[in-house]
Amino acid sequence: MQKYRLLASLILFTAIVSGQNIEKKELNNDEEEIITEKGLDFKLMPFLSYNRNLEFMFGGIPMVMYRIDKEDMVSPKSISGVSAVYTTNQSYFIALFNKFYFKEDKWRATFFMVTGDHNSQFFVDDLDNSGFYDYGTKTTIVSGGLQRQIISHIFGGLTYTYSHYDTVYEDDLNPPSVTSTHGLELNFLADTRDAVYYPKSGNKIKLRWISYPEWFSNDFSSNKIRSEFNKYISVRKEKDVIAARFAGQFGLGDVVFEQQVTIGGKDIRGYSEGKYRGDGLLALQGEYRYNFNDKMGLVGFAGLATIYGSDTASFNWDMYPGIGAGYRYTAFKDVKFNIGLDAAFGKDDWGVYFRIGEAF
Q: DSSP characters for 68-121?
């Protein structure tokens, strides 16, 4: 049954993408001229995915790419969008996201907001009946950040993030909790990529220190360190890309339940049950990006992760592999911005992932 669900997802995704191509070809000349004059490139993306936790996920994502200053041909194009997603386990998410590049790429900014009701599960093994227990979290997150180029390819910046969580647990396993956090982030970025949306060469090195101090209206004091190192190498006469990534997330202090990390998603695909949860994570992965024409491609990837600070001691510092493959379709051709689907398998787990942009 799981194989048929995956096949159905791939068929539906391909049909939607094909429909977008037909619709685009049917645009008349006047519509194309209006889009060109405004310097806007608008797309309405479908969202379709499945995992063992949220089950089927579907929705829509209208997105637009543009230049803040039409005379600025140095800065990458900025992107803004809205996503609305509903899942068959009765979760929903509505998000607004923006990435801004301006002043000849001397400045970069982000603004993100999401609200939703997240029904999920976590694993407990120290009770009479070990297993998965459900929880539901009503979440609101608002985040804004600004980065400035310090020297060539080196950026530094600040980000503020407000998060509000209202969580209830199955069978009152834990008491209901309402948590609001105010996070201050100091970040540094070394970026030598030849492109921000589909790099074929260069590195991206990012270090983030996120603090939740008590003096900033937080109930508990904690800190996070997040680090990443991405490497891109062009191959096959610059048609394809080999990409590699190391990521580390380190929780320090009183890390609340909602701020813990779970193996799965961006840093190690193939885990969707939410079983392996802890205060920190280390992950290493590689990906081959094969482009068989200008609009479509395939990816193959594999990775390995570990966690620490789990309430289940046997999970700590164990190895969690992931392997999979995916399909890519170029939605914004002039900057090669891809969407796609990935299928991945992990340790007694698996997942299907809808991609907006590359995994890393």
A: SSTT--SSPPEEEEEEEEEETTS-EEEEEEEEEEETTTTEEEEEEEEEEEEEEE
